[in-house]
Structures are given as structure tokens and as C-alpha cells.
Amino acid sequence: MSRVLLRSLAALVLTAAAGLIxxxxxxxxxxxxxxxxxxxxxxxxxxxxxxxxNQAPLIVDDRLRVYASKRQVRADGPVDAKSVxxxxxxxxxxxxxxxxxxxxxxTVISRWSDGQLIxxxxxxxxxAWRTAAGRSAPxxxxxxxxxxxxxxxxxxxxxxxAVLVAxxxxxxxxxxxxxxxxxxxxxxxxxxxGFTTAGGQYFxxxxxxxxxxxxxxxxxxxGPFVPVGCAAGLSGCAxxxxxxxxxxxxxxxxxQRSDALDSAPPGVxxxxxxRGRLVTLTADRHLRIGGELDFxxxxxxxxxxxxxxxxxxxxxxxxxxxxxxxxxxxxxAPGHYFTxxxxxxASIR
Length: 349
Fold this sequence. Notes:
By secondary structure, this protein is mostly beta strands. The protein has a domain at 155-263: Thrombin, subunit H, CATH 2.40.10.480. Helices cover 9% and strands 40% of the residues. The chain is built from two helices and 28 strands. It has helices at residues 2-26, 147-151; strands spanning 29-33, 48-53, 58-60, 64-68, 72-76, 89-94, 98-104, 107-112, 116-121, 126-132, 156-159, 162-167, 170-175, 181-186, 195-196, 201-204, 207-210, 226-228, 239-241, 247-249, 256-257, 269-274, 277-281, 286-289, 293-296, 306-313, 317-324, 343-347. A five-stranded antiparallel β-sheet has the order 1-6-5-4-3. It has a four-stranded antiparallel β-sheet with strand order 2-28-27-26. The termini are far apart.
């Protein structure tokens, strides 16, 4: 009888230990690693290619590069480093996935699949605030470079010092400084995702809203709208094109007609604006900034046989994800990306 009891007790102990180990492995967890080094200074570079990266950086304050992977948001610097460096700070969560990342000033805001909206002080890597922004959000969709997550996050935008979250038929705005909800409205099904403008509007396929208070805007041009010259992804866009291809500047209270933003000639891609200068990419992969700068966007003897994926334009830098010109459309397929380090970064100051 004693042997049976001992065996039963041993089995219970082993079961409890296995359960404890399983709980430790599978339980929700967060790992913060704040910055230990000083905030990078602004680099003073002549206009040129500065590096090639294997991941897409969200350039923050022209001093910091922020990356997203499935369960981690991390930052490195300086922006003009030739390759990805050791992380200055990072946030890793389990089992939630990174849904999207945006930035306003030096505040980096990440949205997670469990509905958490977490703001990080980009200078220190410490939490600034967090709030529950809905029950759930899309999972990680950034593929190998993370470009879709940092340069075009679904349902996540910034504008007028607010973070906008779209999903489930609702559009909500939260203060960048505190995370306090500014307003929340119901939107039509066709307004599931859109873009914010430099003038403080939010446009989607079915209309527009004020970022300040959520009030519906009287339609100006007729959609569907194509954003132009966005600060990053679909946020802070300096212009738009209407359903006929006509361009409008959107830096003020109402869109203003602009011939310069009309549909570009074949072979010319409008990337954005830098310090008031129009930034374009030509068919032979020359980067043009206003009428001042023009240089080849390549490293050494690279051929121009690539097409742009997603990109970001700031005051001082351009970063572009490069895809194989005639490669497969599936990001998971071999040959989709132009090189092993497909993201090219250039100084345009």
C-alpha cells in the first residue's frame, strides 16, 4: 500500500511541476529593456545613401530607428548607421502580436493583437502610458522586413497630437501625451481604414472626419482618395488625389487644389515632401528632391532593376523597401525582395 501511495504522490508532484513549467512558458509576459545609452544626436550628412537594412525602420525624430517583429518593438540608432545595430531599447510581449507602430514627436505608440495600445518614450525606451483600445486587433502582417507594420499599419494613424484607432465599425482618438480618449464615433462599413492629413483630417472611402473632435466633414473632392506625401504610412499626409486623379494639398483646414500633385507621369513615383520640397523617384531609380538634389539610389554597382515597396520620407531621410522588379508578389516567396538587405536609406538634408 505504501508503494502505491508513494507512486501516486510522485505522479502528483510531477504533474504539478509540469503544470508550473507550462504556465511559466505559456503565461502572458512582458519584457522591457529600456535605453542605457544617450539619445542619438542628429547626424549632419551630405545627401547620399547611408545604409542598407534587412528590416524597415520607422524613423523617429530623425534620430531613432524603430523596428517591429511579430512579438517585439525595438529601436536602434543613429539613423545613418550602415546596418541594423544592437537594440537601444525594446519591448517584447507574449502571446500578443505587434499589430502596428506609429510615432508622434518622440513618442512611439504600438498597437497589439490583444487590444493594448502602449506608448513608449522613444528617448528612454520606458513606458509613457497604455490603454485598452478595443477587444482585439489584427496580428503581425509585416513579413520579413516589417514594412507593413511600421509604414502602413492597418487601423492605426496619428494626427493633430492624437492616435486614431479604427476597427469594428468604430473610430477612436486618444491623446498622444496621455492616452486619454479624446472621442469615439461609429463609422460606416466602407470607412474601416483611411489616412490622416497634415491639416488634422481623417479621410476614408466614404467621407472625412475632424481629428480634433470626430465631427463629420463636408465632402470636398469626391473619392475614392489616394493619400500623397504622408509622413509615414497613412499618417500626416500632405496631399491627396481624388477619384479623377486631381491633386490637393491637405496641410490646412480644407484641401487646396494643386496641379503638382496630379497623377504623376509614367515612371515617376511621388514619395512625399521634405522641408517643403517634393520628393520623387524616377524610373532609373534617381531620387529627386525639389529642384535641388538628384542622385542614384543605389549602393556601389547595384542595378536599378527594382521596384519600390513601401517607404518613409522625413525632413532628413528617405527609406524605401526594394522589391525585385519582376519577382513574385508573395512576400514569403524566394526572390520577392531585391536583396538580402532590401531597405535602402538615404540622407536628403
